[in-house]
Amino acid sequence: MSFRDEAIFIKRKTKNNMDQDTLHPSPDKKDVIHHHHHHESCSNKSKRHALVSFWELPDYMKDNEFILNYYRANWPLKEAFFSIFRWHNETLNVWTHLIGFILFLGLAMANLMEIPQISDLISLLTRSFPISGATNVSQNSEDFFAGATNLIDLKQITQPEMDLNPPVMPVTRWPFFVFLGGSMFCLLSSSICHLFSCHSHQLSLSLLRIDYTGITVMIITSFFPPIYYIFQCEPQWHFIYLGGITAMGMFTIVTLLAPALSTSKFRAFRALLFSSMGFFGIVPAVHAVIVNWDNPKRDITLAYESAMALFYLTGTAFYVMRIPERWKPGWFDLAGHSHQIFHVLVVFGALAHYGATLVFLEWRDRVGCLNIV
Predict the structure, then answer these.
(1) Staple partner for 214: which of 35, 158, 180, 186, CB 3.0–4.6 Å?
(2) Organism's domain of life (predicted)?
């Protein structure tokens, strides 16, 4: 065999061996390839659900440059839901308003028990349970619910006074429950927004719109109890003041539906819209003080409403100025940053308004009005 023939033979043999290895890789090579892909897949999955820094976020999530770490980005809905039990920079944003929602739900249920129709229905249902002949379930259930609601009912403070001046007719409660419903909607929509906005850009935009709508609804419904009960004898003011704040709220909602206005660039503008709705309340507040100057409940009502205004305005200031994380970026990533403080102050403000509403109810129940609507 010549040198040229030997070279051709070796070349063909090498090519055949390579083809066989490609078509039938050895078990060792298969294991190596499988292990490599498995390791790469696990690494990608782990990385996808890991908390990331501000610089790793997609642009639509870059809202506060002073919070540097512990972000969730592009998480599946299931992972986002269960992250409610994990520590990240939205954990306290979720829980502050979720606890507030549960609190107001409890207050709404406790006050529902005071409505005679609801109490009678519960008494009717409890009669179906086995009881002894000496036990009056209806009476016991009414006593139980009355005792439970007394714990949170400021009206019990003036019980002797109420005995001397029995109510002419219990005032309607629907404005009170409108306020409670608006507060619960705001708090729940806020919690859901903070929990799931890390899923995708489209879902984040939708949840932000619902969140802004919830804030607007809470502001609107907060006007219903004071305006309705204070001006109950002059119902024309209901249409003027409640119609005015509702119109402002609808304008705010329509304005904030624009996606561009959901960005951090328009943070101050959003705060201005919400604050302008709150400042609208100065007009009916001054009017109410003049009309009810001799009302013995004037001072306590003003104290509650002043506390509400202070909580809301202070919370808004934290929200806009991004204090304290602006002073020490990265120090307040998990706890203590401005949005969490804003959330807590919103709940306190709503509770202060709840206290004022109980005073309105107690006063109007005793005083009544000849022109009840």
Answers:
(1) 186
(2) Eukaryota
Domain boundaries, the chain: 3-80, 90-114+153-367
* CB environment 140-165: b (16+ within 10 A), e (fewer): ebbeebeeebeeebbbeebeeeeeee
Residue range 31-52, pLDDT digits in tens: 444 444 444 444 444 455 799 9
Task: Determine the average pLDDT of the residues in 75-91.
Answer: 96
Residue 155 banded pLDDT, cuts 50, 70, 90: very low
Give the separation between CA 360 and CA 307, rounded to whole angstroms.
16
- Mapping DSSP onto H, E and C, the string for the chain reads CCHHHHHHHHHHHHHHHHHHHHHCCCHHHHHHHHHHHHHHHHHHHHHHCCCECHHHCCHHHCCCCCCCCCECCCCCHHHHHHHHHCCCCCHHHHHHHHHHHHHHHHHHHHHHCCCHHHHHHHHHHHCCCCCCCCCCHHHHHHHHHHHHHHCCCHHHHHHHHHHHCCCCCCCCCHHHHHHHHHHHHHHHHHHHHHHHCCCCHHHHHHHHHHHHHHHHHHHHHHHHHHHHHHCCCCCHHHHHHHHHHHHHHHHHHHHHCCHHHHCHHHHHHHHHHHHHHHHHCHHHHHHHHHHCCCCCCHHHHHHHHHHHHHHHHHHHHHHHHCCCCCCCCCCCCCCCCHHHHHHHHHHHHHHHHHHHHHHHHHHHHHHCCCCCC
280-334, pLDDT tens digit by residue? 989 998 998 888 877 888 889 999 999 999 999 999 999 989 999 999 999 999 9
Mean pLDDT of 143-158: 46
Q: Is residue 140 pLDDT above 90, yes or no?
A: no
This prediction's pTM = 0.75
Tokens of 301: 């009502």
> Which pLDDT belongs to residue 117?
66
Taking the C-alpha atoms of residue 144 and residue 119, their distance in angstroms, rounded to an integer, is: 11
At which residue do the structure tokens 């998990």 appear? 334
pLDDT of residue 10: 47
> b/e map of 90-111 (b: 16 or more CB within 10 Å)?
bbbbbbbbbebbebbeebbebb
